Amino acid sequence: MNGLFQSFGKGLTAIFFACVVAWALVLIILPQLAMLERAMTKPARQLDSSVAGSLERDAANCVNILGHYLEPTEASAESGGVAIPSATGMAIPSMSGMASPTLNAGAARPYILQCDRATTHRKMVRESGERAFLDQLYDLPALSVSADAPIPDQIETARQIEQIAAQLYTTLQEAEANASQLGFGNFTAIGKPVMIPRTAEAQAQSDAAWASKALSLIGLRFTKDGNSYQRIGLEVLARTLFFAICATLLSLIVCYPIAYKVALATTPERAVWLMLGLIIPYAIVELMRIYAWTSIIDNRGLINEVLLWVGAITEPIQFKRSALTVFVVIVYTYVLFMVFPIYNVMNTLDRNQIEAARDLGASTARVHWRIIMPHSKAGIAVGCIATFMLAAGAFSVPRIISRGLQSEWFSQTIYNKFFEAENSNIGAAYSFSYTLVCFVIVAVFMWVMRTRLKDFARVQ
Amino acid sequence: MTKGGSGATGAAFRLCGDKMRGKSVTLDQLEVTYPNGFTAVQRTNLVVEAGEFFSILGPSGCGKTTILRSVSGFVQPSSGRILIGDQDQTGLGPNTRETALIFQNLALFPLMPVWENVAFGLEARGVSKRDRRAKAEELLHLVALSDQADKKPGELSGGQRQRVAIARALAVDPSVLLLDEPLSALDLKLRQHMRAELRNIQKKTGVTFIYITHDQGEALTMSDRIAVMNAGRIEQVGTADHIYSNPVSAFSASFVGEANQLAGLISAVDGNMAHIDTPHGRFLGQNPKGLSIGEDAILFVRPENVGFEPSKNMVSARVLRRDLEGPFVNLLMATTSGAEMAMYVPNTGEIEAMQGAELQIGFAPQKATILPVGPVARTGQDIAAQ
User: 3-state secondary structure string, B59-100?
Assistant: First the structure.
């Protein structure tokens, strides 16, 4: 602190600290808090007030559209067919195509989605299995717009529904604003079991797989009342973490000898060339690096073509369906984040220590175990943490390599919750728990390695 | 070399009782050429006796470290062989030789406590932890560090680290201990103290010490014998006294101790004495190499052998500079012919009066050595000018 003052003066130091605080706040603390808050609330459209609001809008739209049918003409009948889509965000498209004249031959108007939905007997969003309706829940009169009634009566009913819904919406919103909406509902969704419909044979086949046995052992798969259930969220999480840890271990096994060779077993002039060889593949954009693999593992890719040509196989091997492929590509993609920390630390080791150990009679294995590894521990720890976090968070590799032909990586699950299922609250809960789990794993790892934070300063 | 099971008392017996533990080291036609084509050690024959404190003295880059590294096994000779005792070491790695090396920077293991450092060699030999600890304690006692066993090397002072390195090397019961200028990083007082201590430990243990240094003071005070080395070649081997008084090459004479040099031509030979004609006069000196008339030669004479007493070799000079050393006065004289000569004279208080006057200085023929022209050691001035 004093050192900073002396080197940079008060002005620059103040700016520096302001930047650090701003960074910590804006890029670390606030996003995590925002994520946590979102994870602990239900999506707004699942709230009762939202249902009431949607009903109000539907009724209002219904009134509007019915207005066109008060004086029936050819033109208005046509335009009436184009039902205005409801703006609630529910992914139900306007079904103007259903407004077929033959279906509604006797009616004064074609089918109108909004009028159909303008009923107080409206289903609420509840956990699966539970059924609740707006009119029963809030003691409303059971009103709905009947297509058989004369148009003015329909408009009248719709107006009534609109008023009731508007009133209910206001009261509910007030009540909800006062009540706490926080809960762990989104988090429990990760562990929710999903029934997997299977034939008996498929079930037996699945049960025989060792992965399935392992997953049953930790309670992620079970059978109840003859039906098999899987906790899919947790399963994907467990799989991803398992593969990420294996990828980290494999990277370590690959990188330690490389780092040793470059740092300690090569003359500096030659080490430059080795270094260059390590860096060049990483001058290529990550996506291209991953994509290059597809030309190798495709059904008509390099490996399969060669094997077919040699005659070793008759059918192409489906590499895309194998988790092992994703695993190998992840190791390839992130291996450098393991090499450099280890290399940097090893480089600082006095080679005389290695010679001294050898001179005292130590075997090569002992020199590594007692001299080089303890010295490089901090680098190994940093490399492992970096590789683990990158592997666990890998998104492009499983996506490009598997092309949806195998089980998701957890990062894909999170992405899908956010952008495909459009349930960002569940997505937030998933990603927050994932952050937490990874953090715990890293902390445990550091404890096991007996790495103190100050050791990291040696890694550069 | 004992494996495991040796109790503390047994080890103590070996450390202090067995005087003949050291083995001889023989360099037989050794030659070392590095892959880049540089010949660090020219064809060399050398025998280091068992239990000897042997120093290899030479300027940096003369190949002395290469010899040490070939003996310890880190460098493979390009030709010739090395014998320890009467065992050929060709093909043996450093971890299987009966040598232990003490590095210039000591190369202690910073992450291990002192006792584990000392016991590392035993650990590599599979000795149980209890015996390791016992042996380490005992060796630390030998080097007076019993109370530092559980500290890390980084917490010790320079001299203590030095002694840990010695204890670590001795722990493996080596027959030959190789020391690569281990005292060069210490300050003067400590260096002088450690010289005595090293000598002491060598006597106690009876291990053969091969000590590499560029510091002639260290070599002269500690060694039984010294090899003077220059440019990959051993110039002279002998006791400190012998080398100092009877140098056999221009390099030896100029590198070990101070020497005045007067170059000229041999003009007459008389038994083992010879006359040399120099621009500064004609002098008589010893002719150990048997030079004949007409050969180029250099006459070497030590500053302490130059005096004011009349002798056969006289030259007139005046005092150029006078440095008081306490009991001695170092005088730098300029002869009338333009040469500079150094002389050490006892500080009797008479020098003061001589300032400025023209004086007659001389040296006894028996104290002067005439040697063939060859490379001479660079003076401090040369090195500074580079």
Answer: CCCCCHHHHHHHHHCCCCCCEEEEEECCEECCCCCHHHCCEE
To the nearest 10°, the Cα dihedral for A102, A105, A107, A113?
0
On whether any CB of chain B is under 8 Å from the CB of A349, the answer is: no
Residue A35 and residue A99 in one domain: no
Q: Looking at this predicted complex, what is its ipTM?
A: 0.78
Cα B254 to Cα B261: distance, rounded to the nearest angstrom = 8
* Distance of alpha carbon A364 from alpha carbon A158, whole angstroms: 87
Calculate helix-pair angle for B188-205, B8-17, nearest 10 degrees.
Answer: 100
Same domain, yes or no: A56 and A201: no
Q: Are A16 and A8 in contact (CB under 8 A)?
A: yes
State the total domains in chain A: 4
**Residue A135 belongs to domain spanning:** 44-177
Cα distance from B120 to chain A (closest Cα, Å)?
Answer: 7
Task: Indicate whether A85 and A169 sit together in one domain.
Answer: yes
Highest mean predicted confidence (pLDDT) among A67-71, A109-113, B361-365: B361-365
Select from B170, B174, B226, B171 the least CA-distant residue to B198: B170
CA distances from B239 to A25, B4, B25, B302 (A): 76, 39, 17, 18
Of A310, A317, A293, A268, the C-alpha closest to A399 is: A293
**Assigned token pair, A280:** 């060049």
* B172: nearest CB among A352, A360, A371: A360
Select from B70, B101, B132 the residue whose CB has the most chain A CBs within 10 Å, as the one to mutate to test that interface: B101
CATH number (domain holding residue A328): 1.10.3720.10
Does residue A409 sit within a domain?
yes
Q: What letter does residue A322 receive in the DSSP assignment?
A: -
User: Is residue A184 one of the residues assigned to a domain?
Assistant: no
Same domain? A55 vs A3 = no
B99 interfaces chain A, CB cutoff of 8 Å: yes
Q: Note the pLDDT tens digit of each residue in A339-349.
A: 888 988 888 88
Q: Residue A114 has which token pair?
A: 């909004």
Any chain A CB within 8 A of the CB of B123?
Answer: yes
Calculated CA dihedral for residues A19, A25, A29, A35, nearest 10 degrees: -120
Between B269 and A79, whose confidence is greater? B269
Interchain contact A231–B (C-beta under 8 A): no
Q: Do B109 and A371 touch (CB under 8 A)?
A: yes
A366 and A304 both lie in a single domain? yes
Residue B206, pLDDT > 50, answer yes
The reply to whether A31 and A131 lie within a common domain is no
Does one domain contain both A66 and A203? no
HSE (CB half, 13 Å, CA atoms) of B144?
8
Judge contact between B120 and A370, C-beta under 8 A. Answer: yes
pLDDT tens digits for range A153-203? 888 888 888 888 888 888 888 887 777 667 777 777 777 777 778 777 877
Among residues B223, B234, B220, B317, which one has the least CA distance to residue B64? B234
Q: Which of A319, A317, A217 is nearest to A209 (CA)?
A: A217
Strand partners, B27: B46, B82
Q: Strand, helix or coil at A131?
A: coil
Tell me the C-alpha distance between B363 and B340, whole Å. 15
Query: Looking at the structure, do residues A100 and A142 belong to the same domain, yes or no?
Result: yes
Residue A206: CB atoms within 10 Å: 15
* Any B CB within 8 A of A362 CB: yes
Domain-embedded: residue A187: no
Answer yes or no: pTM beyond 0.80. no
**3-state SS assignment for residue A344:** helix
